[in-house]
Specification:
Low-confidence stretches: 1-5
Order of helices and strands: HHEEEEEHEEEHHHHHH
Strand content: 15-25%
Shape: globular
Number of domains: 2
Largest sheet: 6 strands, mixed
Oligomer: single chain
């Protein structure tokens, strides 16, 4: 679902990887790292291969009370010590790139070991992967995968090889089914179309993709997971609706008003889930609410 599609969310045969629940369900569970690893390797390319990984905390507090907290959708550490951040971003905003830089900078600064002599240590590699449901540049509609590094402008050579940014611009991937040839194509197709599919396409005949379809089938979710997913899908629709209306009004006050309305709807969804017996931590994760807020409802 994109910001231009404001129809009420429908629940199909497979979960939507663009929803908070769907993304974390498919990629953010230790039991599913056999899905995340080939996904990351396909994006990172042949320069390195991740064989195993460990999921890490997704929340970073500042060292002082006045420093802003950073929350990642997914963070993991590869077998060579590389730190990988994966973010699903629904809509562009003026300070999107600044937020990305802030997130990676905070992660890098947190690696400085206390008590170690100044710079007498080596920083780990940091890779930021952004899965975007928008175009960073609306005039550029052909490139759907961008890999960005720090380079020497004159020579074009890499200045620092241990900080990189990879952006998947999903709206730019418009290949038809008959054009799907590579695994990269298959991953992009999956992110764009999994929730719209009613069966496994023939071009998804590799074992890893067949496993994803099996895991993503709604009939395999528990009752609690199903309720959390539907609430997450509703939250995504509310967000897109609120942002679209705010754009039409072209006013920050209007955007804030619509966002508050969406937040109220989110709290109502949380209350309904809580009455239905869904665990507090599941509600908090699915709706991106602080656990303390859910516990007080």
């Amino acid at each position: 679902m994109t910001k231009n599609n404001l129809d009420k969310p429908t629940v199909g045969r497979y979960i939507d990887p663009g929803s908070d629940f769907g993304f974390k369900f498919l990629f953010g569970r230790p039991a599913h790292q056999d899905i995340l690893i080939p996904f990351l390797n396909e994006l990172i390319g042949s320069s390195k291969r991740i064989k195993s990984l460990v999921y890490g905390p997704t929340e970073y507090l500042g060292e002082t009370a006045d420093q802003k907290k950073v929350i990642f959708d997914l963070r993991c550490t590869g077998d060579n010590g590389e730190e990988i951040i994966v973010e699903m971003q629904r809509m562009n905003h003026d300070n999107f790139k600044e937020r990305v830089m802030f997130s990676t900078s905070r992660l890098i600064s947190s690696q400085y070991p206390k008590g170690v002599e100044y710079w007498n240590f080596e920083l780990p590699e940091v890779i930021f992967i952004g899965i975007l449901e928008f175009r960073m540049d609306d005039t550029e509609r052909e490139r759907y995968l961008k890999s960005i590094s720090l380079i020497d402008k004159d020579s074009g050579r890499i200045f620092y090889s241990k900080l990189s940014y990879i952006f998947l611009e999903l709206p730019n991937f418009v290949k038809k089914d008959k054009e799907i040839k590579t695994d990269k194509d298959r991953w992009f197709w999956l992110l764009n179309n999994l929730s719209k599919a009613d069966k496994i396409p023939t071009f998804m005949n590799k074992r890893i993709f067949q496993r994803i379809f099996k895991i993503a089938e709604l009939s395999n979710l528990t009752k609690e997971e199903r309720m959390a997913y539907e609430a997450s899908l509703q939250d995504k629709w509310l967000w897109n609706s609120a942002m679209s209306l705010a754009e039409k009004k072209a006013a920050e006050k209007a955007a804030e008003k619509e966002r508050k309305k969406a937040d109220q709807e989110k709290l109502a969804s949380a209350q309904s889930l809580k009455k239905a017996g869904v665990a507090n931590h599941v509600i908090a994760e699915s709706l991106k609410l602080p656990l303390a807020v859910v516990e007080k409802l």
